[in-house]
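Moderator note: this is an archived Q&A kept for reference. The question asked for a predicted structure of one protein chain; the sequence and the answer are reproduced below.
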Amino acid sequence: MNIKLFAITLAGILGIVNHGHACTGLTLHARDGDTIVARTVDWHGDEMNSMYVIAPRGHTQTSLTPGGKMDGLKFTSVYGYVGIAVQTPDFVIDGTNEAGLSAGLFYFPDYGKYPTYNPTRKSDSIADFELVAWMLSRFATIDEIQEAIKYITVTNVDPSASTVHWRITDATGKQVILEFVDGAAHFYDSVVGAIANSPNYPWHVMNLNNYINLKPGTSEPKKVGNITLRAYGSDSGMLGLPGDFTPPSRFVRAALLSNYSIQQPNGYDAVMKAFHLLNNLDVPLSVEFDSGKATNNMPSATQWTIATDLGNKIVYYHTMYNRTVRSIDMNDIDFASVRFQYAPLDAIKDQTIIPIRVK
């Protein structure tokens, strides 16, 4: 990121890291062994400057440190990657590299704590919003990340800002959640393939026990006294599924809807299924503000949705402006020679409409 770009975007960056995202992720596995990682990115404050990023091998990035100085960890890409970033191309929120490693950042307020920043170790320190780019640039497996993270310090650009946590998936289908608690890195096996925001990941998994009664299908009639109770319609087995937009409720919906969904035969079909499931996790702008006090008129608080086919290395996304699915096929990119580049997710902020011509 050059100095001019940094000067232009610093105010926006600090706004993003202080207010954060309310995002939800899920994972699907196709019958052919393919793994799909998908998620929403939700932020109600205003429209984020979101862009796709293509990074070649050999691309060098220097991290920000507290106070906004570009004097932190300097790293050079071993692997090329494709990602989606906000505010600056260095702040990759979600992406996948050519080795099949995927990483994504999720807001994690009040429950996380990074190590104490030490200015004498600034060359080993990295901003939390740049950790995804570091992981995609340098590593092919989760095991490699677990070892390497021992030797760096993750910090905030603004020390007063919230923490975040990460979902990491490699080409084997292995997936972990990384959280910093009391200054230490904790890697949790992603046992249900879902992620949201706070509280911590073990709490969300334990909370699923409150929904043990939920199941697909229709509940059988039940006799109570002298009457027989019957469901008003189909799908009553999921009566009680939380429908609000708090992180615990979104986690439960993501976990149950993805694990109860019909397994798809291949990666493409699983991607399409993931988009449909994530429709249930979209956050309407109307629930983010008190009545009559909305500060903007965006189409949605869910600004973009991404689903990545790790086996075939294809990234798919749509946005709040245009729900037409677009794709970036990593197999078509020569990461040895492609230039570092980024561009807005929407060339035109308008929904693609295909008229039906009646003759």
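Archived answer notes: The domain at 3-199+265-344 is CATH 3.60.60.10 (Penicillin V Acylase; Chain A).
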